[in-house]
Amino acid sequence: MVSSTTRRKRPIPLSRTRPPTARANHAALSSKATRNLIRSHHRLLKARAQALQAGDEILASEIDAQIRENGGLESYQLASKLGQSLDRGGDSSKALVDWVASRLRPLETTPYKLRVLEIGALSTKNACSMNRYLDVTRIDLNSQEPGILRQDFMERPLPKSEDDKFHVISLSLVLNYVADAAGRGEMLKRCVSFLTNSSPPGSSIAIIPSLFLVLPVACVTNSRYLTAGRLEDIMFSMGFVLSKSKQTSKLIFQLWDHNGDYKPKVFKKDAMNPGKTRNNFAIVVK
Question: Does pTM top 0.90 for this prediction?
Answer without folding.
Answer: no
